[in-house]
Design goal:
single chain; about 190 residues; two-stranded antiparallel ribbon; 8 helices; disordered N terminus
């Protein structure tokens, strides 16, 4: 009898999140968007890892460029040869970096970092992979344009991805209407 009384007065369960929710507060479930699609939202640490991998790849290209710049002697080469070597190196490394990233985006729907961290951006409404054009124009170029104008999106993105109430969505996720989820085995 005593147990039956407890069952009758049992409270309705709170939405399932990885965070504790104080009674009486409105909570936004972290995995709400992903859960509707039957997907798992990527952890902020995987997303940070993907950014660091992409930055490491870009830094290696930059170091190679600086090495070539420092090895070309402007005093023994004429100005045209010096500019040709340095500008050519810059353009080749830029094309290499962008080519590799675009290849991964076109083939897998992920950058090199996201591929290695096994995460994937998908459309929030349907859970479908982005086309290469959607990925480049909505997620990459748009945020770079905003970053060049404002300069703060990196800090804002870090806050949004680590916060609880935005489904770990960065500015580019919000603008492109995407979420980043754990990728199925590739």
């Amino acid at each position: 009898m005593h147990d039956e009384g407890r069952l009758k007065h049992k409270e309705t369960p709170m939405p399932s999140t990885q965070y504790k929710i104080r009674p009486g507060t409105t909570a936004v479930a972290i995995n709400e968007a992903a859960a509707k699609l039957g997907l798992n939202l990527a952890s902020p640490w995987k997303r940070l890892g993907a950014v660091l991998i992409n930055q490491f790849f870009a830094t290696v290209c930059f170091i190679v460029m600086v090495a070539v710049f420092s090895l070309t002697d402007q005093y023994t080469l004429n100005t045209d040869a010096f500019l040709f070597i340095n500008l050519g190196t810059f353009l080749l490394l830029l094309l290499f970096y962008l080519g590799v990233q675009l290849h991964f985006i076109r083939r897998h729907g992920q950058t090199v970092g996201k591929r290695l961290m096994k995460i994937l951006p998908v459309l929030e409404a349907t859970g479908e992979r982005l086309t290469a054009a959607q990925y480049v124009f909505k997620r990459e170029l748009l945020i770079y344009a905003i970053n060049s104008l404002v300069g703060l999106p990196i800090l804002i993105n870090a806050f949004l991805v680590l916060s609880r109430g935005y489904n770990r969505r960065s500015l580019e996720d919000m603008l492109a209407k995407t979420i980043v989820v754990d990728a199925p085995d590739h």
